[in-house]
Amino acid sequence: MACTAPKRVCIVGSGNWGSAIAKIVGSNALRQKHIDDRVTMYVYEEMINGKKLTEIINEQHENVKYLPGHKLPPNVVAVPDVVDAAKDADILIFVIPHQFIRTLCSTLLGKIKPTAIALSLIKGFDRAEGGGIDLISHIITRHLKIPCAVLMGANLANEVADEKFCETTIGCKDVRNGPLLRDIIQTDYFRVVVVDDEDTVEVCGALKNIVACGAGFVDGLGLGDNTKAAVIRLGLMEMVKFVDVFYPGGKLSTFFESCGVADLITTCYGGRNRKVSEAYVKTGKSIKELEDEMLNGQKLQGPFTAEEVNYMLKNRGMEDKFPLFTAIHRICTGQLRPAGFIDCIRNHPEHMNSNLDTYESGRSIRNSKL
Ligand SMILES: NC(=O)c1ccc[n+]([C@@H]2O[C@H](COP(=O)([O-])OP(=O)(O)OC[C@H]3O[C@@H](n4cnc5c(N)ncnc54)[C@H](O)[C@@H]3O)[C@@H](O)[C@H]2O)c1
């Protein structure tokens, strides 16, 4: 019988989520024969109290800056050079803030195994030349010439690291890779559902951070839970519409996976985008100032993603079709006062749509386009 070598895994990134996922992947690697024990983790080097973060991680088995209080398995090895970390890997798990992905791909180009596969945990978009947006997984595939699946879900990193039960979604078109990726990630407290609707999974993961900013504005303005629920619902409808318009062929069922409605809810209550957006309304400080003050090196995704989405909507003359996303972008960039937020969504197309046609068809699942 042919004996295949165990698959080597590299985690490209070591922030809050990168470290939490390293804890899972490291312990799964020790338990599963078809995964190599040694898991490399690319760490963007920084000094912590005069000592290199990579040295601290390799000696204390803890990322004291981005995931303090949680031990990483000792087989997770921190490596400061991304090429060294990734060159022998069969599976590359990308988990860095999206603004760094292009530079990182240029560094890795031609230096990884041509047979490697990727899994992106990165939430966000990048600008495409010519006015659109690029999905991060598409950037990885195009630049590195390897297939890239995605993992998104209601997964606040600290709670996952605490081993509190949650679910996640892997979007993977290639049926051969889905089970392998699930084996690397799944534990008894972190349950994985694999779907083939890759793009919708990824778009959900990026767009929900915009909605979370809206939820933070609602909190900052002292509006109630009903208002927040309205913002979440309108946000969800804009997410569905966005996929329908720009990524046709997506499935409505994907929005009911962890990457859809569940991630939206958790981010609108617990995430950093909500927290900073609330402070933005209350303090009047800039988003950048608050990111520096409140997040200890972690990066915000929502305002960035809102800007990229707006760039595309503006180019296509579609800002008014997505009033929630548009208002959030304008507030984040100081073009609109937070107090004007609700006025922008009072006459949302969702409310104007309540004509007899929609009423009669009842938006039945059978009639739904996605
Ligand atoms: N934290 C969560 O709860 C969570 C959950 C799901 C998904 N995500 C997503 O995972 C991705 C990574 O987020 P995170 O929470 O692990 O990171 P983070 O925001 O906690 O940390 C920022 C990371 O970026 C690194 N960095 C800074 N400058 C860099 C540079 N020039 N080049 C490369 N790296 C640099 C830092 O060293 C640090 O590791 C994001 O797309 C995020 O949306 C996060």
TrEMBL record:
PANTHER family: GLYCEROL-3-PHOSPHATE DEHYDROGENASE, GLYCEROL-3-PHOSPHATE DEHYDROGENASE [NAD(+)]-RELATED. PROSITE patterns: NAD_G3PDH. Its EC number is 1.1.1.8. It is found in: Cytoplasm. Belongs to the NAD-dependent glycerol-3-phosphate dehydrogenase family. NAD(+) binds at G13, S14, G15, N16, W17, G18, F100, A157, R272, K299, Q301. Homodimer. One of its GO terms (molecular function) is protein homodimerization activity. It catalyses: sn-glycerol 3-phosphate + NAD(+) = dihydroxyacetone phosphate + NADH + H(+). InterPro entries: 6-PGluconate_DH-like_C_sf, 6PGD_dom2, G3P_DH_NAD-dep, G3P_DH_NAD-dep_C, G3P_DH_NAD-dep_euk, G3P_DH_NAD-dep_N, NAD(P)-bd_dom_sf. GO terms for biological process: carbohydrate metabolic process; glycerol-3-phosphate catabolic process; glycerophospholipid metabolic process. Residues 9-175 form the Glycerol-3-phosphate dehydrogenase NAD-dependent N-terminal domain. Pathway: Phospholipid metabolism; alpha-glycerophosphate cycle; Lipid metabolism. It comes from the Eukaryota. Substrate binds at K123, R272, N273. This is Glycerol-3-phosphate dehydrogenase [NAD(+)].
